[in-house]
């Protein structure tokens, strides 16, 4: 064997060894990634821990003390399809993403709008629903106002829930108005009812529900929602297996019509009203 052939054979052998080593390393890395996924941890724990915050009718506490609502149905179905129990962990909205990142729960299922800012911190599934922003106004304070432009001035006080996409929508569409931010949904509503705010910006059906509940005090100044926002599951970054499962679960539930049916029940009927206070 010539020196050249010896060198060539040596180089070829080295390349093959390096290639095999790389393949083995890549295989080990994929295996470790799969074992470390939230999906595998949930299956071993046999419990899916769900972070959420209360928004009617997304999630509410019923008369019997249990949580009910669209998101509650979604979480229960997801856990059932995984063959595990579900544990609900109510969390203040402005702290829900930090709580996810610190491992307090496995997933956020709480009507969370997909936004670029949130996406910097968490990964989102495909949208499983869409939410639209609307306005409900105080008849005495906002008399005669019937457009976004009517509310977009320095004299108008707008009530929103802190950390929600409603807060962002109010800033974008009503930049001249004074935005009043509240941690609690009930507090933001009370500000409107007391006449300290001209209007409340929130995702429907809350504005519609409030207008029906307080017809003597409130009204809907707009004929339709002024935004359409995608809603997705939020999970920690670096977990492709869990995200893959969630996306395929959404596809299956959409193909069956299950998600639409549950949405229609909670958002387009009042059949559930007797279950809450």
Task: Indicate the topology.
Layout: H1 3-35, H2 38-45, E1 47-52, E2 60-61, E3 67-68, H3 70-82, E4 85-90, H4 96-101, E5 107-108, H5 116-119, E6 123-124, E7 129-131, E8 133-138, H6 148-151, E9 157-161, H7 165-173, E10 178-182, H8 185-193, E11 199-203, H9 206-213, E12 218-219, E13 229-231, E14 234-235, H10 240-256, H11 258-268
Parallel strand pairs: 1-4, 1-5, 9-10, 9-11
Antiparallel strand pairs: 2-3, 6-14, 7-13, 8-11, 8-12
What does this structure look like?
The protein has helices at 3-35, 38-45, 70-82, 96-101, 116-119, 148-151, 165-173, 185-193, 206-213, 240-256, 258-268; strands at 47-52, 60-61, 67-68, 85-90, 107-108, 123-124, 129-131, 133-138, 157-161, 178-182, 199-203, 218-219, 229-231, 234-235. It is α/β, with parallel strands linked by helices and 277 residues long. The protein has 2 domains: 38-130 and 229-275, Periplasmic binding protein-like II (D-Maltodextrin-Binding Protein, domain 2); 133-219, D-Maltodextrin-Binding Protein, domain 2 (3-Layer(aba) Sandwich). α7 links the parallel β9 (157-161) and β10. The model is unreliable at 25-31 (pLDDT under 50). Keywords: Signal.
Whole-angstrom Rg: 25 Å
Question: Terminal Cα separation, in Å?
Answer: 91 Å
Question: Which structural category do the helix and sheet elements fall into?
Answer: alpha/beta
Largest sheet at a glance?
5 strands, mixed
> Any idea what the CATH architecture of the largest domain is?
3-Layer(aba) Sandwich
Please, what is the CATH homologous superfamily of the largest domain? Periplasmic binding protein-like II
Number of extended strands: 14
Q: Low-confidence parts, pLDDT < 50 over ≥5 residues?
A: 25-31
Determine the number of helices (DSSP H or I, runs of at least 4 residues).
11
Protein name: Extracellular solute-binding protein family 3
Keywords: Signal
GO molecular function: ligand-gated monoatomic ion channel activity
InterPro entries: Iontro_rcpt_C (IPR001320), SBP_3_CS (IPR018313), Solute-binding_3/MltF_N (IPR001638)
């Amino acid at each position: 064997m010539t020196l050249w052939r010896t060198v060539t054979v040596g180089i070829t052998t080295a390349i093959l060894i390096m290639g095999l080593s790389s393949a083995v390393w890549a295989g080990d890395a994929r295996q470790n990634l799969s074992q470390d996924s939230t999906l595998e941890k949930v299956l071993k724990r046999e419990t899916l821990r769900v972070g959420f915050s209360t928004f009617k009718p997304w999630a509410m506490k019923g008369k019997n003390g249990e949580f009910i609502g669209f998101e509650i149905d979604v979480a229960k179905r997801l856990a059932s399809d995984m063959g595990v129990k579900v544990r609900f962990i109510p969390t203040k909205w402005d702290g829900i993403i930090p709580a996810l990142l610190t491992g307090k729960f496995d997933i956020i299922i709480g009507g969370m709008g997909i936004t670029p800012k949130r996406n910097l911190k968490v990964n989102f599934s495909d949208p499983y629903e869409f939410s639209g922003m609307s306005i409900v106004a105080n008849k005495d304070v906002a008399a005669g106002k019937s457009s976004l432009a009517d509310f977009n001035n320095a004299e108008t006080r707008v009530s929103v829930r802190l950390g929600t996409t409603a807060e962002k929508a109010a800033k974008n569409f009503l930049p001249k108005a004074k935005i009043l931010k509240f941690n609690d949904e009930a507090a933001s509503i009370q500000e409107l009812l007391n006449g300290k705010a001209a209007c409340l910006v929130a995702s429907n059906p809350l504005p519609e529900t409030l207008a029906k509940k307080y017809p003597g005090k409130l009204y809907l100044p707009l004929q339709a929602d002024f935004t359409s926002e995608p809603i997705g599951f939020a999970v920690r970054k670096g977990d492709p297996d869990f995200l893959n499962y969630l996306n395929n679960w959404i596809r299956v539930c959409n193909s069956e019509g299950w998600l639409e049916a549950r949405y229609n029940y909670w958002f387009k009927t009042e059949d559930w009203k007797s279950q809450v206070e």
